[in-house]
Structure formats: C-alpha cells, structure tokens
User: What shape does this take?
Amino acid sequence: MIDLKAETHSLLANFELLKGLLSTYGPEAWQALRERAFRSYSEFGIPTLKDEEFKYISLRALEEGRFKPAYGATVDRYQVEQTTLGSVDAITVVFVNGEYAPELSSAHALPAGVFIGSLKDGLGIYEEEVLAKLGTIANLKGKLGSSNDERFVDLNTAYLSEGALVYLPSGVSLERPIHLLYLTSANHGPLVSHPRTLVILGENSDAKLLETYLGMEGVYFTNAVTEVSMGPNAILEHTKIQLEQADSIHIANISVHQAEQSMYTSNNIAFGGKIARNDINVWLDGEHTETWLNGASVGLDHQVIDNHTRIDHAKPNCNSFEVYKAILGDHAAGVFNGKIFVYEDAQKTDAKQTNQAILLSNTASINTKPQLEIFADDVKCTHGATVGQLREESMFYLRSRGIPKAEAQALLVFAFAAEVLAKVTIPGVREILEKLLFEKLELAQQAS
Assistant: This one.
C-alpha cells in the first residue's frame, strides 16, 4: 500500500478537482460507483516493478508526469480524414481528448433498435441495459488468479463521464463496420483522458468493430476501458489499433463476456506510444463459445509494449485460439503474459496459445510468460513461446537471389506479421496496417 500523503501526482488530485462536475453526469448511481472506484485505486496507486502484473514495465513516467484533465481541442473534419484510418468507410463515432465530437462523426441510417453513438445519448434510450452491464464486465473479483489487478479499470471508472455505446438488438447483422475513433491533441501541455466504451450485442447479432487510438500532438496519457457483452450466437470481430504519439502513455483494458455459441475475434495491433499496455480478459460463460485472440506489435527506439491476455474457460465445450507476435528493434522492450484458466466444470475445453517474437537488434528484448491453470481433466490445452532473430538461412536465400539486405529483412518480417494482419477483414484496414508496418520497418533499417 502506498503512502497517500506522499502521492502528489495528478491522477489523484484531478478527482477532487472534477468531483463536482462528474456528479452532474449520468445517473445518480454512477456517483457511488465513481467513489468506490476512486477509493479502490487510491489504496494501491500507480503500480511499481514490485507488483506482479507490472514487474516488467516501469510506469515512473506516470509518477513524474503532471497530467491535467483533458480539455477540448479544435479539430476539423479535414484533419480527421487526413489522419491514419480517419477516412475508413464505416459508421464513425469520433472523440477528441475524450469528448464526443458529433460534428466529426458520420451520420448513417441504422436498422431499427440499433444505437451507435455517445454513452450520454444512449442512456436516454437504453438506460436499463447500460446500468446492468457497465462496470460489471470489467471485473475480476471472485475469479481465479492470485494477482487480479484492476487498478487502471478503477481509475477509469472514477472519472466516468464521456464514452461510446454500441447497442445491437437481437437478430441484427450490421453490414457496415463500426469505427470508434479516439483522437488526442495535447497542444497546451500534458493531459489525461479516460475513454470508456460499452458494446452490447443481442442474441444472433453480428458486427465488425474498429477501435482506434490516434495521437495528433503532444504528451498525454490515455487510460481506456472497453466492455463487451455478447448474447447467445452473437458474432463480433473487434480490431483495436493503437497509433499514439511517440511520447504518450497508453493503458487499455478490454473485457468480454461471451454467452453460449457466441464467437469473439480480437485483433490487437500496437504500433505507437512510448509505453503501451493492453489487457484483454475474456469470460467464456456459455457452452460452445469460440474465442480468437490475435496480436501484433512493433516497437522501436525505446518503446515498451506490454500485452497481457486472460481467457477464463468457465463452461464446457469451448474453444480458444491465441496468436501474439512482436517485432522489436533498437532498444525496444516487449512483454507478453497470457493466462488461460480452465474451471472445474469446463470439460472438453480446447485452448491453444502461441507467442512469438523477432528481435531486430542485440539490444531489443522481450519477457514472455505463458500460463495455464487447469482444474478439469478432459481438456486439450497447449502453449508455446519462441524468441529469436531472423533466420540466417532465410536471409541467405533471399540475398542469393539479388534482393538487398534491407528489403530481404523487410520481407521476412512482413511475412512473420502477416498471419495476424490477415485476420483483419474490415475493408481497407489491413492494407493501411501493412503500409504502417513497412514504414516502421524502414525506420528500423535506418537505425541499424
């Protein structure tokens, strides 16, 4: 436990500053929710290397930073369209510095009962559903594991205000993808925002969701929480892309609750940020569910990219498949911790987990820790991790055919990441990611 008297950083101080304003937003029950979350976060504060879930990632930048509450910024539609992924053909909802920007969002005719927009507007239509789900999915209390750390979820909940709501009633298949675009422009000093996203899919519904975090300028801290509730037979392809500024800190928690026969696919792409941490927790709460977790990250310079995944197999006859890949150059550091819990009643579980990393320099590093905790006896569970540099024989093969060294390296690294990028099926997005990957590889070559 930290000494709160010595804890002077703005992540705590901002709460007292905004407490009155926050109390005017949302149902009265939310104020009690904020107070509980703030007390929970305050008990422990910013993690240190002594905390098990953060032992390989230093967050001293949060200790030393003076992040003011997010404020409005002037961004026009042309600027949005010129950004990476800003012109994707989708139902687009834009947030700037954590604030909903309806003037930058797109207007589309939606099927009856579908809502895609701000949490504030959605409360007026689906208040009962929102109150039943928000804050209950991003919760590890009572679940297996001795180091269930939720402090950044608590920090986000303490500042609960603006956010996005996606609601699909039963039987709706949405053809056009959804794009939640979170932009940050910190041109007047360091700021912190706490984006909140709630996705509710009814029975037999189907959607593709793109969740993008994109920095425009400045130093800032993004602390995002996304909760996903999937009804029976629902299908969701959820692609999260993190392209933050070079001096930014990005911490994100995605929590998913799957009902029977639902299928959830996560494509987690992390290219930006000085420090980036992603936690993805999936609760399989019905038979015959299917879960796919795909991840690709590229770190250069002194970037730190930390991916923690957790899959709770709570019911029998469920399948999960996970592939996470990292490309690290210069002095970049990567972290992967993948947990799979198979509960006593979860017979006939089939779970496969793979983590692979390529180190492009002798000074890049990764700490990888796949974990299995199995309390059922009729299961098929495998996990594996490999870390290495590009194979010399593969480089020799390409070089012997006249391909320059830099191009040969780029081709091999691209082929390594392509397995994950190919899982993104939203039109035009995979091509943008491939272009970004080649740009990152060019920077790696220039540094070598």
Q: What stands out?
A: The CA atoms of residues 349 and 405 lie 45 Å apart. Residues 1-7 have pLDDT under 50 and may be disordered.
